[in-house]
Every structure is written in C-alpha cells, then in structure tokens.
Amino acid sequence: MASGFAQWGNDLYTGRRSYDIVGKRRLWFLIGAVLVLISAVLLVRPGLNPGIEFRGGSEFRINEIVDPAEQPAIDAVTAVSEEEEEARVSRIGSSALRVQTATLTSEEVEEVRTALAEAYDVSTDQVTSSFIGPTWGADVSDKAIRGLLVFLGLVTVVMTLYFRNWRMAAAALIALFHDLVVTVGVYAAVGWEVTPATVIGFLTILGYSLYDTVVVFDKVRENTVGVLDQSKATYAERANLAVNQTLVRSINTSVVALLPVSAILFVGAFILGAGTLRDIALALFVGMAIGTFSSIFLATPFEVALRQGEPRIKEHTARVLRSRTAASEGGEPALAAAARASGQIRPGTHLGTAAQPRRKPSKR
C-alpha cells in the first residue's frame, strides 16, 4: 500500500496522472462560499459563547468530588444569587467542577462557597473562588484584533515582495479569511466557550494555512517561469500541475500535524474536561483541516482566476488553444495533441494516425 501511494505521488509529480483542480475552480469556490455562509449564520445564531475572561464574573472550583453532577451546583448558585443568568458548570477531569456566575458581591461569594460545599459534601477549603473583570477580556480582544491586522498587513507586503505578484497575496488573504471564518463557525456550532487559548488557536492556524499556501505558490511560480514564451500549456495548466505536484506533500503534512492535535483534543475533551488544552486543540484541529482544503482547492484557483483577467494571459491562452485546434485538424489525434501540449511528447516528434508497435531490427 505504501509503494502504491508513493507511485501515485510520483505520477502526480511527473504529470502522468493529474487532477483538474484549477479547471474545476468554480466548484471549489461554491463549496468555500457555502461553508463561509453557514459559518456566518452560526455566528449570528446561536453565536459564540464567550468565556468568563471576556464577559467577566465570579468563578468557583470544587475539588475532590465523589459525584460531580452539575445540577446541584446550579441549584446552589440560584438559591443565593438573584441574577437571572444561570450558572455555567463544566467538568474538570473526573472529580472537579468549575462554576461560573455573574459578578457577585463579597457576601454572595462566601454564601455560594458554603452552598457548594454543602451540595457536594466537601469542606469549604475544597471550594476556591476568583473574580475576573470584563476589562481584562476587552483588553485581550483588542490586542488579538491588533495582532490579526498586523499579521495580515505583513503577509500582504512580504508575499507581494517575495512573489512579485500582488495576486498571490490577495489569493492567500482570501484563503486565510475562509479558514478563520469556518473555524470560528465550527466553534459557534459546538458551543464551547471562547477563551484566550481559543484566540491563540485562531491566530496559530493562520500561520499554518499560510505556510502550506506559500509552498504551493512557490511551485506555481517555478512552473510558470517563461510560460508566455511557449505554446504547449496555458498558465492555468502549469499552475494545476504545481498543485498536483504538491498534493501529496500537503496531505502528508496535514495528517502528521492532525494526529497529535487530535490526541490532545481527545485528552482535553474527554479526560481532562474543560480547560486550555481542549479550547486550543479544537481550534487547531478544525483550522488545520480546513487550511489544507483552502491551500489546495482555493488559493491557487483564486490566483489563476485573478491572472486570467490579464490581457497577456488571455492572449497566450487563446494562442495555445488555437495551436491545439490546428494540430487536431491537421490529422494529429486529439490524445496525441494533448500529450504534446502537456510536454509528454517532445516537439518535432511525428505521430501517425495510429500508434504502431516498434519492431526489433533484423539480425540479417
């Protein structure tokens, strides 16, 4: 099986096997647009679930619980606090609970601690409390937005200078926007709290997605050097070859990266319960998976779509297609014309109307 996968990768790199990814770009654009639209709807309803770090409030942690059921904690908080907002209870590991409430007074905090200790039959020393102000969350949000804007600005400048092509920078930004919106939309659908660890995960996936996109673009640039000086393949076909040549690498890199992240997600979600590991692992897992999709099926097709509007590219594409039509009408079979255009047949090689098997020279 490994040898078959390696052979498949070699065939993709040499061009013996090819998938028309760029040619079907309208399909990928439609899929990406649908994912972004669904994510936008999820961001409105039910919307994101901000953690206590962003909305502020009081937090209690109950340790060494024999039966960590959630309802007794809700009843204990409701009996003391007059706030209409229901307490948020999440399990931490197998013997601890985290209870988040609205902002409470010092007297209410002590009353809730006592009520929680009685509800779970533990001493008040096993119930810890803390207060988090909403200004801290606002400060984190502000810095996260600034960091995102600075990151996108640097990406635009560096990619434009490196590739000497603003279209590649624009395509990369579109792919990044797609990855970020879809990842946030999944978070809204799951309903997990958005914490500072989640924000870190969102920013991390942008770097991962950009790295994979740059690798593909680098191959596109290599394949399209001097593309206007030949008549065997169009710009879109050379770009499609680059995507096929990097396809195996993108898959391998994603699988290797997703395996440990999925393990962290499993441990954080099902063993340790709510916490930093779970929050950052979900963002990384979804972002890496959707980033692989965008780097293969969105970034390069977007770049090709932008380049197709250039007069030089239009003229060159028309010239290549006219050359193929002339070769086909001149008696060369369509399959041979396509092979000649893709470079599998050397220029100047004559092919008849039917392939003739080669005969060994006579020994006489």
UniProtKB/TrEMBL annotation:
Mode of membrane association: Multi-pass membrane protein
Xref: SUPFAM superfamilies: Multidrug efflux transporter AcrB transmembrane domain
Annotated InterPro entries: SecD/SecF_arch_bac (IPR022813), SecD/SecF_bac (IPR022645), SecD/SecF_CS (IPR022646), SecD_SecF_C (IPR048634), SecD_SecF_C_bact (IPR055344), SecF_bac (IPR005665)
Region (Disordered): 323-364
GO MF term list: protein-transporting ATPase activity
Ranges that cross the membrane: 27-48, 144-163, 170-188, 194-211, 255-274, 280-306
Residue intervals of the Protein export membrane protein SecD/SecF C-terminal domain: 117-306
Localization: Cell membrane
Main localisation: membrane
GO biological process, one term: protein targeting
HAMAP family linked: SecF_B (MF_01464_B)
Record function comment: Part of the Sec protein translocase complex. Interacts with the SecYEG preprotein conducting channel. SecDF uses the proton motive force (PMF) to complete protein translocation after the ATP-dependent function of SecA.
Protein name per its UniProtKB record: Protein-export membrane protein SecF
Taxon lineage: Bacteria, Bacillati, Actinomycetota, Actinomycetes, Micrococcales
